[in-house]
Amino acid sequence: MTTVAPSRKGGGGMNGADLLRGEVILVTGGAQGIGNAVVRTAREQGATVSFCDLDPARVEAAVAALAADGLDVHGTVADVTDEAAVAHWVEEATTALGAPSGLVNNAGRNAYSDPTTMSVAEWDDFFDLDLKASWLCARAVLPVMLTAEHGSIVSISSIHSKMTMAGMFPYAAAKAGQLGFTRSLALDVAGRGVRVNAVSPGLVWTPLSETHFAERPEELAATLAVQPTGRPAQPSEIAAVVCFLLSRAASYVNGADWAVDGAYSARFA
Ligand SMILES: NC(=O)c1ccc[n+]([C@@H]2O[C@H](COP(=O)([O-])OP(=O)(O)OC[C@H]3O[C@@H](n4cnc5c(N)ncnc54)[C@H](O)[C@@H]3O)[C@@H](O)[C@H]2O)c1
Questions:
Q1: Which 8-state DSSP code applies to residue 251?
Q2: For ligand 1, is residue 34 a contact (CB within 6 Å)?
Q3: Does 77 fall in a domain?
């Protein structure tokens, strides 16, 4: 990746020992970035974990890197926009680890389309990943969660769900959709042992943001200058919040959207 990484000051993350012991957590897009940090933290906190991602070599490398740190996880190749692939992943993970009790809808990408020239195919392609996939994955795990009357679904939205910027059409629409999805689903399963929440990160230093700023180096200093905390989040700082929401410790947090943005959105509230 690129060499524009800003200071890594802070961002150690927390290790809540046994917070997730007994849980079986599924994470989409777990080979790198925020998803990979969630996989690591959840496993460190005692969960058994399965993740999916697109590229076999990167899935294998991520599993090996975690194993090198003594963390055994199940990783497989699945495109979360593909209904059959999602069903197959959930089935494979259930056979390997047991019935899922947690799901993290993390896989997503940025969008930089021109609203006047974007094609319907491009629109569908983007929303398939940044919105529809969360429903496909939730639909695949909900039956066992509802039967067990135990489950937690966390979707990674973004600060863009509430305040966005020019040039990223239609990213904000999909991320705001994640919040509507979260509220709607939370109400539909409330009282049946399943909680549904969203986490909205601000700027997080991952391969996604590294690539963004490598392609737009002039934006980096200005973006860092408006961060009240003076730095981006590390993926582990998002993962710590996601894992808390996955845990029984968050038993009364439901239908919520938690900002993890270092006070960025507070400046404009
Ligand atoms: N990095 C940030 O600053 C930031 C801020 C707010 C929200 N987010 C959101 O957090 C999530 C993760 O972002 P990140 O920065 O870690 O991104 P990333 O690109 O570094 O990692 C995303 C992972 O998802 C995988 N993925 C993409 N499409 C997939 C598909 N169809 N099926 C399975 N896996 C797929 C990718 O291969 C990759 O490994 C995204 O939803 C993103 O929109 C990121």
A1: T
A2: yes
A3: yes
For residue 174, give both structure tokens. 């999909």
Q: Which two tokens stand for residue 75?
A: 């990783």
DSSP state of 131: I
161 lies in some domain: yes
| pLDDT tens figures, 133-159 | 999 999 999 999 999 999 999 999 999
Q: Please state, in angstroms and as integers, the Cα–Cα distance from residue 114 to each residue in 10, 165, 168, 217, 231, following that order.
A: 37, 13, 9, 21, 30
Whole-model pTM: value is 0.95
The residue ranking higher by pLDDT, 118 or 1, is 118
What was the pLDDT predicted at 32? 98
Q: Which two tokens stand for residue 43?
A: 């496993």
Number of domains within the chain: 1
Tokens of 185: 């689903």
Within 13 Å of residue 107, how many CA atoms lie on the same side as its CB? 29
Q: How far is CA 54 from the centre of its chain?
A: 15
156 Cβ closer than 6 Å to some ligand 1 atom: yes
What is the DSSP-derived secondary structure letter of residue 92? H
Look at residue 2 and tell me if it is in a domain: no
Catalytic position from the list 112, 171, 252, 264 = 171
Chain Cα centroid distance, residue 1:
21
